Amino acid sequence: MPASSHLQRILTAVLALGLVGLALWQGGLLVLLAVMGVSALGVWEFTALFRPGPEHASLRRLGVVLGAGLPLAAKFGPPQALGWTLAAIFWILALRFLFRYGRDQERADFHDELILMAGAAYLPLMLQFFLSLGRLEIILVLLSTIVSDTAAFYAGTLWGRKKIWPQISPKKSWAGSIGGMAGCMLAVTAFGACFGDAPLVAWLALGAVLNLAAQLGDFFESALKRKLEVKDSGTILPGHGGLLDRIDSLLFALPCYVLCRQALSFFP
């Protein structure tokens, strides 16, 4: 990797971590705004993968509205607000298709609406779980995905020979996968030992679960990009590609943590 590109990646990562740190320090409104912003930009990027070009700008703008609106409803709405919001999203998209079909039966299909529904499930529906977590829990989930990706990258670079799933991701190796798993388990266990309230074996198991989820999220986005024949999901993060390239692991690990904490309390 060229030195300038490496420096660009570092600066982007430092800026992102700084913004996350600020949101966690302030809490409340800033965390909500961060979730809404990432969700809105993520749905825009997800939609643009399938529907690039200026002729689909209105579809991407609708995706931004859906991406920002769903976390807002989850935060301030009544207990059933999330379900009603998803129902409203479907109604809006169904009506959009209905009127498009009424204007042009030959060209209208339901593909655009399915893309937006998938984007809503993939991003805002997953990211809104952050709003129910405490600061330590947010840090834990972010730590698990960052360490998973970093340890996998360096282990794969140093020792990677045999590829784990070349049809999906030609660069990912068994060494990288094992390194990511080991790094995540160690990081999660160390964090839990310092700040948590669960047995050691529970933290080790949690690290393994979060890493498996993170790897699946990474593979999913890799398969999506290969199917669509694109290298990066976007260009919004200098040196890192698109937003989805950075949070693909997080989108799978986050709901897994929420499920795990239903079975066991990890923090006092």
What structural keywords apply?
268 residues, 10 helices, mainly alpha
SSE diagram, text form:
Blueprint: H1 3-26, H2 29-50, H3 57-76, H4 81-103, H5 111-122, H6 124-127, H7 135-159, H8 174-195, H9 200-228, H10 243-263
Helix pairs in contact: 1-2, 2-3, 2-5, 3-4, 3-5, 4-5, 7-8, 7-9, 7-10, 8-9, 9-10
Characterization of this structure:
The chain is an all-alpha fold and 268 residues long. 75% of the residues lie in helices and 0% in strands. It contains 10 helices and no strands. The chain has helices spanning 3-26, 29-50, 57-76, 81-103, 111-122, 124-127, 135-159, 174-195, 200-228, 243-263. Helix 4 runs antiparallel to helix 5 (111-122). The longest helix is centred in the C-terminal third of the chain and has 29 residues, at 200-228. It starts with a helix and ends in a 5-residue tail after the last helix. Residues 1-5 have low confidence and may be disordered.
Give the oligomer, counting copies of the same chain as homo and different chains as hetero: single chain
* Largest sheet report: none
Strand content: under 5%
Number of E-state strands: 0
Looking at the structure, what is the overall shape?
Answer: globular
What fraction, in percent, of the residue positions are helical? over 70%
Query: What's the N-to-C terminus distance?
Result: 43 Å
